[in-house]
Amino acid sequence: FGPEILMVSFNGRRYSYAPTGFTQVNEAMVRELLATARRLLAPGGGERLLDLYCGYGLFAHDLAADYAAVHGLDAAPEGIESARRNGHFLGTEVRASFRVCRIDGADVTRSLPKPDGRREVILADPPRQGIPPAALAALAERAPARVVQACCGTDEMPAQIRAWQQHGYRLQAVCPLDMFPGTAHLETFIRLEPAG
User: Fold this and answer.
1) In whole angstroms, what is the distance from residue 121 CA to residue 67 CA?
2) Is the alpha carbon torsion for 170, 175, 162, 105 positive or negative?
């Protein structure tokens, strides 16, 4: 019952998504969310952005102009379909590609382009439990120059940081955002870089 497609607009871009798909519920904070992600990622030109748990492509399309290529992965087929459709209408489809992928070690490795020496950065917005260990290990093996991960499960954040540290990354920044006003929950971005 109801519309088959929902619409939202952020930073002058209009996005469509399926009613069963994920979207940020606090729309008043999305501009700040996008600005914080951009600031922490610090696009350097010529890099490849890997957008994990990309949904309908909110981050990918907002950041596409800052990167040579963007590769989005999400387990929800309706999210990937929306991301592709949004890319067509936003004109970002030449830089951004999207694939359905269970975010686990083997599927991530198969679904992302093979490392080719180009600098990569990772943006991940996983569910509350964070990135599964096998997927995190596969991502760390790619030796990204920067990782920016959203943590909406504050209790899981220490374990995620420790997991990245075990794979040779050090914590550079922690940025909490009050995405869930009236609750004790925060959306927190962490930025990590290779310890070397």
Assistant:
1) 10
2) negative
CB atoms inside a 10 Å sphere around CB 41:
23
Residue 196, pLDDT above cutoff 90 = no
Instruction: Find the mean pLDDT for residues 188-195.
Output: 97
32 φ/ψ sector (left φ>0, alpha ψ -120 to 50, else beta): alpha
Q: In the chain, what percentage of residues exceed pLDDT 70? A: 100
Structure tokens at 133: 């260990």
pLDDT at 162: 97
List active site positions. 152
* Overall pTM > 0.90: yes
Token pair of 121, please?
Answer: 């950065």
DSSP summary character for residue 1:
-
Q: pLDDT band for 110, please (50, 70, 90 cuts).
A: very high
Q: Which two tokens stand for residue 114?
A: 């093979």
Instruction: Enter the tokens of residue 38.
Output: 């951009």
Residue 52 near residue 122 (C-beta atoms within 8 A): yes
Distances (CA, A) of 156 to 7, 60, 105, 149: 31, 25, 19, 12
Token pair listed for 181: 């006003």
